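For reproducibility, we list the full input for the nicotinamide-adenine-dinucleotide complex.
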Amino acid sequence: MTQVGVNGYGTIGKRVADAVAAQPDMDLVGVAKTRPNFEAETAARKGYPLYAAVPERVDRFAEAGLDLAGEVEDLVAAADVIVDCTPSGIGAENAALYDDHDTPAIFQGGEDADVADVSFNARANFDDAVGADSARVVSCNTTGLSRILAPLDETYGVEKARVTLVRRGGDPGQTGRGPIDDILPDPVTIPSHHGPDVNTIFPDLDIDTLGMKVPATLMHTHSVNVTLESDADAADVRDRFADETRLFQIPAGADIDGAGKLKEFAHDAGRPRGDLWENCIWAESITVEGRDLYLFQAIHQESDVVPENVDAVRALRGDADAAESMATTEDAMGVGI
Ligand code: NAD
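The corresponding predicted structure, in tokenized form, follows.
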């Protein structure tokens, strides 16, 4: 069993912890928290050993009635792999701690690519991370794009991708984020950082991305145009996507017109936290004009990277190949609609 520690127990960290705990070949050694807030309470209630991320704050946990298993250094020492889920930039600061303990580490997409040996997406480049000391699971948007670009490139070849990303202003729990009443080109310069991030997974792919930000919290929406190298038709593309376990094609008759109903669907299906780990592609939007493919997809920013983090653990350990790891992860979590 691989002993996995999670440092940073917020939006991504708490989901990664649950996903790790569900795996047949992994134990969750514990989670590190900066303060004894409601998330620390929940972790304790789930029986996850709690570690203090900031040693000076150990007393605050005791005052809140929360037992600690130790400090973050103890967690890093006890783990075979540490998954760093701290806010952007903090992961890079933590890298020396993981190095000092020779603990392989997984970082998140908010970090610069050079934080880790390799940027990672399970479907596109699992093998690049096998045996590496560290990997960076790319952002929610880059994960969503990699999952469609990999099968398109393998099947038809990709001449050029152009994507407009309409991004949620903040996650539901990020009460301080905006905009509240505006529509922003964000960033106003082109390309947005997403295209270069996709190139950390597909170095030779020609891609331009444009970003916008809107007053929404539920999901991101991508408007995608891919010029293919060979002829395709829409039915072919739908068939090809149907083989991909992390792509959900929203059926035409489902009456799902946006992120609101997608989340309602996820809650009705009993998904934990209403999570949608799969890209949600409107099947009707898949259109091919000549060699130009168009589609709309929604990406649940809080959860699509979670199965990728689990696969990254197996890749660093060299415990399984991509297909075996993805199948184990999906089976344990219930991924696939
Ligand atoms: P978050 O703020 O929800 O959670 C981060 C957690 O880390 C918080 O609980 C915070 O208290 C804790 N923390 C802060 N400093 C710490 C430290 N020094 N040691 C340990 N814990 C510390 O952030 P998040 O949304 O989960 O993002 C985490 C990473 O995942 C970022 O790199 C982000 O870019 C990336 N990411 C976020 C999303 C998203 O939409 N939320 C999607 C994909 C990737």
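Residues 7-13, 32, 34, 53, 85-88, 90, 108-111, 139-140, 171, 301-302, 305 surround nicotinamide-adenine-dinucleotide (CB under 6 Å). The two ends are 28 Å apart (CA to CA). Both points were considered when choosing residues for closer inspection.
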